[in-house]
Amino acid sequence: MSSFTLADWLLQRLDIGAGGPVYRQLYQLISRAILDGHLEAGTRLPSSRILAGDLAIARNTVIQVYEQLVIEGYANAASGRGTYVEDLSPDRIEGSSDKRRGDGQASAPCPRSGLSPRGQDLIDHVGFSNRQMGAFMPGIPDVAEFPFKAWLRIQNKQWRHGAAQLMSYAPAGGYEPLRHAVSEYLGSVRSVNSTARQVVITTGIHQAVDVATRLLCQIGDVVWIEEPSYWGVRNLVLSSGLKAVPISVDQEGMCPTAQELASPPKLIVVTPSHQYPLGMVMSLARRRMLLEYARQNGCWIIEDDYDSEFRFGRRPLPSLQGLDDAGLVFYAGSFSKTLFPGLRVGFLVVPDDLAMAFAGAVAELYREGQLITQSVLAEFLREGHLTSHIRRVRNLYAERRLGLIAAITRRYGDRLDIVGEHAGLHLVLALPDRVDDRRVTREAIEQGVVVRPLSNYYMKPGGEKKGLLMGYAAVPMPEIDPAFDVLAGVIDTQLDGWHPQGVPLQNS
């Protein structure tokens, strides 16, 4: 391309009055011309004086662009000889083939298919929603009740006195005072047997399960999960190349059949304190059975204790980990439900002989930081703010729980069952099998009410129960009735005996 042609080509594309820097536009246009082959390798670029004159811009602008092109490898320059386009053709790479199109230009290879099969499977089953607040989003505490003043006071103190030491990566296992505080707290409220050494600070349940499956399992190993179960854990297991086997639950918790017991898994993931999402508590007899089975067959157990602090009218059973005398149970939890979800601090209590390995693995895999947050949380626990906060909001959540139950009962009486209402931050409104709970969810969200379809939590095809997960913790009392009236209007379109397309339904 001649100098006149290049100037003409640039003049057609430069927009001096666009408001952006002329330098940036000129650089982008010339580099694109080189990459697209308009300026071939070895072509001499016009002198900065000539090009500046042709474009009616400052010569220093052109000089700056040429210098940048040389720095980034688009061109080379030698004193007295001018600036030349570099050879950027891919066939200069050793071992590459020179495949040409009919027009003589190199053809691009076919792109590889995007996601791996297990990556695509993960995306196909994503349960995450961008709507994370509002009535009746499950699993969300009322962040407006968070003790901001106490937190900010502690945070300011930590910044004043320890900022330099708290701005680096976290040590293996996490901030030592927080590990001590978590160990003491779990021992007092959940009968968890641990030392600070066994506590590994994580970003939450997801990371705890991820590191556990990486260290305990090989690709292809079998992992038992509850049926139904939390979609996040299920997807973590599947995306790790493990075989997730859903084990049905009854009123006493996970209930494996004789056939299932005959094929022991490598890992068992359970929510014994408050089954997610149905809410039953694993009985003491079932806990003892599961521990003995794991001991006899060399299985590991992950106990996901996500919201046991919130029980209404009864004390929780001791943790499964507290009953374990064989060192097979990993106890996982977080502060997302007790404080606020964005905190992203959790913990994994590890059997003592594996504690150092897990602490090192978390540091190696995730390069943890957030020391300032961990230090604030440690002092927050030490001063007793967590315990008093839980005591206060438990009463608040209990009132809202009763308010939601009352709203459901007024509307439906005993036509619809309420499941799992004795603990946690949500309940399940059971629906007849003929009702499309996914459609109800979509239409409710369109009207500003957030619920989750129970059927999404099942893995076995054809065995799904229908219902709606409804959170009440973050819904002020005056908002419960109006929001439920909106939701009920959506539900009623299917309860009246007609399919949304107008096809009559059989009674379930």
TrEMBL record:
Region spans: Disordered? 86-118
Pfam families named in the record? Aminotran_1_2, GntR
What are the Basic and acidic residues biased-composition ranges?
Answer: 89-103
What SUPFAM superfamilies does the database record attribute to this sequence?
Answer: PLP-dependent transferases, Winged helix' DNA-binding domain
Query: Under the GO molecular function aspect, what terms does this record hold?
Result: DNA binding; DNA-binding transcription factor activity; pyridoxal phosphate binding
Q: Which domain of life is it from?
A: Bacteria
Keyword set for this entry? DNA-binding, Pyridoxal phosphate, Transcription, Transcription regulation
Similarity-based family: In the C-terminal section; belongs to the class-I pyridoxal-phosphate-dependent aminotransferase family.
What protein am I looking at? GntR family transcriptional regulator
